[in-house]
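User: I'm preparing a small set of examples for a lab meeting where we compare how different chains pack in three dimensions. I only have the primary sequence for this one, and I'd like the structure in token form so I can line it up with the others. Please keep the answer compact; I'll paste it straight into my notes.
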Amino acid sequence: MDDYELEVLPDGSQRYSTPLRGIDVLDNQNLNKGSAFPLAEREALGLTGLLGPAVVPLPAQVARHREQLASMEPLAKYEHLSALQLVNLTLYYAVLNDDLEGLMPIVYTPTVGLACERFGHVVRRACGLYIPITYRDRIRDILRNWPEKHVRFSVVTDGSRVLGLGDLGANGMGIPVGKLSLYTAVAGVPPRLTLPITLDVGTDNVVLRNDPTYPGLNQARVTGPEYDSFIDEFVAAFTDVFPGACIQWEDFNVKHAEPILTRFMNKVCTFNDDIQGTAATAVAGLYAAARAKKQTMADQRILILGAGSAGVGIAELFSLAVQAEGYSEADAQSRIRLFDVDGLITTSRSNLEPFQMRFAVDSPEQTSFVEEIREFAPTGIIGVSTVGGAFDASVLSAMCEVQERPIIFPYSNPTSHSETTAEAAYTASNGSALFASGSPFPEVKVNGRFVMPSQGNNVYIFPAIGLALLATRARRVTEHMFLIAAQTLADQVSEAELADGLLYPARSRIAESANALATALATYIFDQGHARVERPDDIEAFVESHRYSPSYLPVVPS
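Assistant: Understood. Below is the structure token output for the 558-residue chain.
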């Protein structure tokens, strides 16, 4: 028998029924209310005496954790919240919602990067499933061990390229856990419908393999046909056990990220946030920057440092945005150049991956990023290189030479890998730069006034995608959905925010903007016939009705 059942009553209200009693109720993260259990429920569930006699409501519980968190360093906050997530899921999300802007950098970048590096040391028990390649013949059995049988979303990683930190193997579990927490906290996707998964194929990180607390396989990373076959078997098993659920691929290295997405995007409901979510975030920032300059997307020329899957994904979506303004694909692509560790991506290069070749330019080889800025005169530079400080003084100076209002987007995470800082960009440009970064930066004094730098974090995109998919039960995630998301996100930036230098809605409004994105995406899904539910009269209200809000439900014996 299941530990609990979520019942919908005739009046539309919900409650949990459970065969569990006593300490087993308190040990269930979905049922546990701690000191908030009403006295009648304590009697009915065998909890009398296991809790202090006072009934402490949810707001008071949240206040207690707010006070505790206030005195902690970031990693200690991460550990505290991770422990709370395992014990009381409702309280965990109530605490996040109480200070979403302040706690997003804790449950996700930049703090999650440090947590992943030390995952075996700081996490008591992961909130997800590990599927080792050594158990490839038992994938369905492992998936069925998950207690929730109606999973709708899974963030899946193999830990091969965690943020800008490289191969962290099974320690990468912190990424799917953090991402799915934001699905719920930002867009209200019910947490019981989410499943974090780490596909453990080993790691080439010798330091981790020599760490006795490392939770993963102690072997070199598997690649090649054996790896590809494992991914195929996982997708087949996942779609069998959880039909209709969406797979979000996360933090796969350049050799696997794009090929996996290409292989499955037209077969199952799936997307890659590093490729498509990053692209939508970047293009939304470009839309807002163009608006700030009273220009169009076709007026922009973009030079991208980092020609991996994220860089190419940005190039692809920017190309679509220019084409949406009536230009040809060739015209759009002429406005894009990519640069990597070996220099400009040109047709003469012999070391390109297939997905990079579309954006190779017929141009002389160039190994100096600064000289490429002077030759190409981009309106903006975007960094997805994971090379901290790559946009140094010479780069920023060159951008200020060729543009009056240069667009500077250092998107690499965590903060230590950001290509430049907000202070450096604003100082070099005398405050004229249109700046956004992947990790948060503090306020900067610019020409006598304080400016809060924009953070172009994917959290503006993927939770809203999740809510739209949840409401519509969409069959597929298409590339055009990310262009819709980018356009809608840019539209959410108010004129006052734009005047203050912001290129994204203030982080305090991130949940509000998620609702707007989810509604626009759901409308598009219905328009294109991708939905598996009937189109409602009021799409906005329909989407809103699917949002989860952390509140304690009644718990009754079954």
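A couple of notes for your slides: The first strand starts at residue 5 and ends at 8. The chain has a mean pLDDT of 95.

User: Perfect, thanks.
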